[in-house]
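Record type: monomer structure entry
Structure origin: computed from sequence
Chain ID: A
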Amino acid sequence: MFKTPKRLVALLAIGVASVAVIACGGGDDTEQPDGPTATPKPRLSGSVAIDGSSTVYPISEAVAEEFIKEHGEVKVTVGLSGTGGGFTKFCNGEIDISDASRPITQKEIDACTAKNIQYIEIPVAYDALSVVVNSQNNWITCITTAELKKMWEPAAQGTVTNWAAVNSAWSAGGNLKLYGPGTDSGTFDYFTEHVIGKAKDSRADYTPSEDDNVLVQGVAGDKSALGYFGLAYLEENKSRIKGIEVDGGKGCVAPSAKTVEDGTYPLSRPLFIYVSKDASTRPEVKAFVDFYLENAATLSGDVGYVQFPPAFYTKINTIWTSGTVGSIFSGKSGSVGSILGVN
């Protein structure tokens, strides 16, 4: 069953700001030994700077909140400038970790190479991209990827302006109002590539935002609206908006943990963090990423995403502990398991 994102209420309240800072100063986080042979955890200080995808933000924020309970003198900042914005900062050496809702692109790889930034690529969980409408919408329950393309492709700008222009059965919808991620978002890249056929290829006459909370508010306030963003934001806002099923050619399928895991939902994807190789040598960054991987399965479920099978995390942890740099996902198609080499 899909777990209700219990933490997301608090996280999204923080997420209205562009950056959340989590720190508890003054505390001594050295644990007392449980017995004569116990070894206390080392005391950490310093900072960890994270930025990037608004989709990955709730997972990183949840991890940060739990991490500082054990290491209260480490300051962790988590921003949400979008996947592209995060990679720009990352490849300029401005942050330690980049949250990403898609693999790094060749252009971004080249930018990092130019600044001698090496990175370790770490998949953390599955997400399903949800297509959503206003809660008062009573004329649509399922949409095909062909209809989504007709609605969002560049040729639709100025011509596909009402629901009936997409499907004559939807004439009750009136004028079509669209809400979606901005062009720096990995969600935008994923949607345009998988639905329209080319990344960054979209009509421009829609309401964009890098903050998924803004998109939720837009769809919730407009009966004629349709939008798309990560599934966790739909799960948390089902009293205000509703998701619709997507038909990728094999029938209408609703996004859920089960349909994401079995591959039947056509708009699902892995989420990532990219860790600077240089930053990974700092004790506080290493401890944070260790903690991230130890808790990714549980905390990703808590905030509305879908955890990988245990064998995936075992392989991912090997990539991290061995310090393997570079991307194995960039430019690749196929399942997460096949790319990782895990059956």
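Annotation 1: Residues 8-32+42-126+270-340 form a domain with the D-Maltodextrin-Binding Protein; domain 2 fold (CATH 3.40.190.10).
Annotation 2: Residues 1-18, 25-33 have pLDDT under 50 and may be disordered.
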